[in-house]
Amino acid sequence: MQQLIIFAEQLLRTLPLNGAVLYITNATGKILAGTGNEAFLGPGSDECYQEKVAISAQETWHIIAVENDERHVAALRIVKVTLETAIDSLLFTQANVRGPEEAIVEQLLAESDDIHPHELELSGIVRKHGFDTTLPRAVILIELEEKINRYFNINLDLGYDASALRAKTTVVQAVKENRYLNKQDIVAPYGYNQIVIIKAFMAISDTGKYYTALEKIALEVLNDLATSKIFLPRLAYGKVCDSLGDIKQSYQEAKRLLHLGSQTLGRNGLYRAEDLLAELMVFGLPSAIVEKILRPLTRRLQADGDETCHELLRYMETYILAGYNISETAQKLYVHRNTVAGKIEKYKAITGLDPGEHFDDAILTKLLAVYLRLEQGLAAK
Amino acid sequence: MTSKERVHSALLGQETDYCPVINPTTLVTYESMLHTGCFFPQAHTDTDKMAALAAYGHTVLGFDTIMPYLSLHLEAAALSCQIDWGYADKLPSVTIYPIKDLREFTVPSNFLDRKPIKSLLAAIRILKHKHGKDTVIVGKVVGPWTLAYHLYGAANILMDIIIEPLRVVEALHELKEISMLFAQAQMEAGADMITWSDHVTGDLVSPQIYSDYLLPIHQDCMRKLQVPVVLHVCGNVMDRLHLFANGGFAAFHIDSRNPIPEALEIVKGKMMLTGNINIPNILLNGSTAEVREEVTAVIRDGIRLISPECGLPTRVPNANLFEVVKTARRCSCGKGVKA
């Protein structure tokens, strides 16, 4: 902060302010820098003109021009823009300085095997910063979608990168302050839009409790981030690992859930594995099933056009969800039951599958619908 | 000034002839065991042995307090935990946690009559009779949070505080009755001051968990206890020290991982700090010259109640403990070493 005050003093000395008398004060009115001789400024009078500059999430400065005329206001705006640019630049630099937790996360999640250190070396790196390497740990992964992108579809450099970076730093801090996280938990930004929490537990025999706790923590983090004006968060968690070398797997599990969920669930928030059961099954299907069964079925369904294919699958998924009850399916889809019956017959004729009669056919139908959604999600990207 | 006057004045922030040296936690060393002929593990539960070992810290080493509770496990032992009492060089630990469900716990009506509890109370009476006129007799209790670690297992309680916090809070309220019963019994037996060990350590829980669930319990208990109570929590506590300061404790026993000037600023006007002579580097492995330097630095930083940062490992040399007392006596409080 002191550096910023010195910078503000320099600004007022060096910028061409055309003789304007300006003061920069903190929120209480204490003058931090100025071109005049005052020590404190009281409430602004009518002659003054002032604007605010956000220094951080907690602190705001005021730039005050002692006259409300064109010369003073112009000088004030030059100072304001210069100061804001400097603050963004400073925050950008600070945010890019890697802390120990970021370095640890990068080492633990390194993609390539040749730069991934041996488990012992990894243990040394983690221990050096006071983290216990013997505790079971799991990754809670947060992906931040910038809300701002929705309003700007052209690439204008409006300073939003620096603002987003500042906001991301604030988000990381908010996550660190979550009440269920302690000093053994590692929290760090990772990549462009992710925050990784490596949550530590003390070992317990009832391992199901780990996942209940992970879910509760993830929901609480989600709640903490709900007020963010810039980001929409998505969260998922991976498996609990007993060794540091497996943390990467936990991260990958969480990442896969985020990937699948963002394509199919149509919402942000927490993506649970149980919400994505069919998607996970499709993701893990052997090529033989995909190439021999799903692709040929897809081709047959798409022969009458994509619209027909999607509509048929929508009817069939609803039919399965409704417990193979035609009336209930019709109610859910707001159509006549004869329409449902007709679609079922058409589906049976095209695919040769009869979900109402054979459980395996019902599973295949569900997998087919999910497979198509995922494939089209990928194609869209 | 007597030791008693010195400690009480320091606790109230009043001037003292020199900084009192106290031990809110155990001061027993192997050398002290050899000199007294009283050894661990018997001295953990044998009244005469615990009293003799505790008194040695005052009568020979010159500490201003006597603290006969030499482990952290008397309540746990009285509440059916299986304890490995260790040996001369190894402190006790709980080996089997008796509670499988926190709702099971109720305060036994005969808690104060159980052997480990009676032994300590008797030791306090003996020490009060022999040394209580001039010296502060320090009692100690395990707070509800640490007691839950002992009875239910730290891993279980830390998991349940996330999954079922209300159940944990109910249990903490029940467990605090044990701490209160034992504290009041020790006061009646003659304790002038109580150490309250409750390990809400940064590596285990966040400040907010402390604030939400345990701080109200601490505040309630402190309102009811009529002697100065020293809170003991290990580790770096800078992120929660302001909360401890609102707990109603007379002092906080702080460890050397915390920067003293900043810590004093946080607790100013609310409670005293005691500590924070480093154990592993200074008392256990350091020379007497290093001890002297450390104590002087701690006093210069503003600590008025000198003490080792935590319970001592028994291999700490007595010469180093004696040096703590000697250096404190050479120092005018806050003015460095006297010429």
Widest beta sheet: strand line-up of chain A: 6-7-5-8-9
**Which percent bin holds the helix content of chain B?**
40-55%
Tell me the major beta sheet of chain A.
Answer: 5 strands, mixed
Number of strands of chain B: 11
**Which spans of chain A of ≥5 residues are poorly predicted at pLDDT below 50?**
149-159
Report the structural category of chain B.
alpha/beta
Q: Give the count of helical stretches of chain B.
A: 15
- CATH fold label of the largest domain in chain A: Alpha-Beta Plaits
Task: State the distance separating the first and last CA atoms of chain A.
Answer: 43 Å
Mean pLDDT of chain A: 85
Shape of chain A: elongated
Strand order of the largest sheet of chain B: 1-4-5-6-7-8-9
Number of domains of chain A: 3
What pair of chains forms the biggest interface? A-B, 19 and 17 residues
Structural class of chain A: alpha+beta
Q: What would you report as the Rg of chain B, rounded to the nearest angstrom?
A: 19 Å
Descriptive report:
The complex is a heterodimer of chains A (381) and B (339). Chain A is of the alpha+beta class and 381 residues long. Chain A folds into 3 domains: 94 residues, no CATH class; 142 residues, Alpha-Beta Plaits (2-Layer Sandwich); 92 residues, PucR C-terminal helix-turn-helix domain (Arc Repressor Mutant, subunit A, Orthogonal Bundle). In chain A, 51% of the residues lie in helices and 14% in strands. In chain A, strands 6-7-5-8-9 form a 5-stranded mixed β-sheet, with helices on both faces. In chain A, a hairpin with a 5-residue loop joins strand 1 and strand 2. About 3% of the residues of chain A have low confidence. Chain B is an alpha/beta fold and 339 residues long. Chain B has 15 helices and 11 strands. In chain B, the strands form 3 sheets. Chain B has a 7-stranded parallel β-sheet, sandwiched between helices. In chain B, a hairpin with an 8-residue loop joins strand 2 and strand 3. At the A-B interface, helix 6 of A face helix 8 and helix 10 of B.
